[in-house]
Amino acid sequence: MSKTVSTRGMLVVCKCLVRRRKKGFEVAYNATYYPCMDILCECLEDKASGSETCSVVLAGSRFYKNNGLSVFSMGKIGHTRMWKLSKRVCSTQPAGDLGPLCPFTIGVYVALMMAQIEFLRKKMHSYSEIVNGARLGSRNRVLRFDLIITQ
Predict the structure, then answer these.
(1) Residue 28 belongs to what domain range?
(2) Half-sphere exposure of 90 (CA within 13 A, CB side)
(3) Could you please report the per-residue DSSP string of the chain?
(4) Using one digit for the tens of pLDDT, what is the confidence trace for 7-30?
(5) Which end of the chain is more exposed for a tag (fewer CB within 10 A), N or C?
(6) Residue 12 lies in a domain
(7) What pLDDT, in 10s, does the model give residues 76-124?
């Protein structure tokens, strides 16, 4: 899906759904657009205020011995439910075969991308910056996106 969006655009991904499967796309898109926008707003505000940088520095300091406290280990994103499932699914697919695209997954993916595009445009970012793939806080907020979408 990412490759198709990158090379042919989101509209092509949406158009690949047959009429009877568009309802699942619409349900997912409508349910996730505004919750994703909320988290994206938080991400950019944290970045603009310097809070994100401070948080990263503080988190990094927790990985060293400090006054006799144990060292905390950095969590591994690959241990989350989504990444474990992805690994299992990908291991059963022939190389290059993504299998059938799920309308719900496409809806969530496109909603998040469109929310980010709209937010960045409202914050006066240039189109070139937007299309070159700014990912606002994707690494440190992935669990928030997972939680809010699951809810």
Answers:
(1) 2-62+102-150
(2) 7
(3) -HHHHHHH-HHHHHHTS-GGGHHHHHHHHHHHHHHHHHHHHHHHHHHHHTHHHHHHHHHHHTTS-BTTBPPPPPP-GGGSHHHHHHHHHHHHSPTT---SPPHHHHHHHHHHHHHHHHHHHHTT--HHHHHTT--TTHHHHHHHHHHHHH-
(4) 887 788 777 777 767 888 899 999
(5) C
(6) yes
(7) 667 777 778 878 877 887 776 666 778 888 888 889 888 988 988 888 8
